Amino acid sequence: MTSISDKQAYFFRVDRVLEETVAGTVMLFDPETGKYMKLNPSGKLLWSAIVGGSGVSLGQLTAELAASFRIGPQAAAEDVGRFVEALEAGGFIRSA
User: Is 70 part of a structural domain of the chain?
Assistant: First the structure.
């Protein structure tokens, strides 16, 4: 696992993770571990950025969150850091 303090890291969805939208809420599930995560609106935005391309950096995620939710860069960076840590701890993403 790459430390989120590594600004050069890019994040990718783990292939086995399943995603389902139920009543507008995105749910992630890892069938191998049984872990799941329910995403709030900002989590949904960040997850879409992670799965929508060929890897995404912390800086890109922070800029996306700040612009979409009109919050300052420091608050966005803190939120992104916590979200990425939770995704990595749950095994939903990997970094490179």
Answer: yes
